[in-house]
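Section 3.1: Structural characterization of target chains.
Under the original work plan, the team committed to producing a structural model for every single-chain target entering the pipeline before any wet-lab resources were allocated. The record below documents one such target. The sequence was received from the expression subgroup and is listed exactly as submitted; it comprises 353 residues.
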Amino acid sequence: MNVPVKAGHQVRALDFRDASDVRRIEGFVADHKAGLFHRPAWLKAVEAGTGQRAAGFLSERLGVVTGWLPLTEVRSSLFGKALVSSGFGVGGGILAEATEAVRGLAAMAEQYAAGGGFGSIELRGGPIPGDWEVWSDRHCGFVRPLAMSDEAELHAIPRKARAEVRKGLGFGHRVTTGRGPRDLAAHYACYSESVRNLGTPVFPRSLFASMLEAFPDSSDILTIWQDETPFASVLSFYHAGAVMPFWGGGTFAARAARANELMYYELMLHARKAGMTRFDFGRSKTGSGPYAFKKNWGFAPEPLTYGAWTVPGAAARNIDPTDASYGRKIALWKKLPLPLANSIGPWIARGLA
């Protein structure tokens, strides 16, 4: 399916089976210093780990790539069908050099959504077409530079949060960093308990394994241990000079042991030694508990601009956990035994891309 945009321009679907095509897009992303979630490798890892199909459209002019729209085809019996840029990420959206490329990519996505039974398209960042819904008040990102030494890093954390880190240091916890089966098992044990306690279904363990496989040189897991018991663990990515703690959490015991606070501080030190210069704390829902936590660590919130287009006559997808309609479900989920939550949670969470 090709769509002419302007004289000399066309938009077409990316063939993920064509290695040269994929390399061209990876190069386009790198040349434009775009985010991790624009990379075809991210989309394919999502597909391998969740079954949600990778897709995307590129615009070209005289054989040169001028734009790219990465997409995950989300299919869920509970949450419907949507095209998301990018699935399970906090960024993505259209990456383009000219207005005609933006409009052409959006038009192609609209056509594909309507023809494929997808109710909506969601763009997480990038230019948003003028006739789409757009908002900047629901999520914020948090990024700041890393300090030049361990001591300077500690003092860069505001006083109250720094006191919590010092308490964590005082417990003498063991810290490990790795990518092996034991690291993955420890991470899943901590993360799954953490999200269950928040009332959220856990993502499939296969998603985390796929991400580690897709980014062998730019991902790892840092874990805080009490003897042989993992208390807190985070899977992070390293991209364009920034460490991105992406999926992290702690057990109930981690709270008193200050393991979560120690985890992020130790990751800052680890990332600086790995050559990173920035700490990207990810996004949080505006006004939420995680939003306050990151502000308390000295990170300034920066509003994130997202956009969406809904097929005429279709209902917009709603996966906002703060929506009142989810309140009772979240309260019930928090009470589930962890083995049961881990059994049925991944099936549900595949639709929360």
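Residues 99-116 form the longest helix (18 residues).
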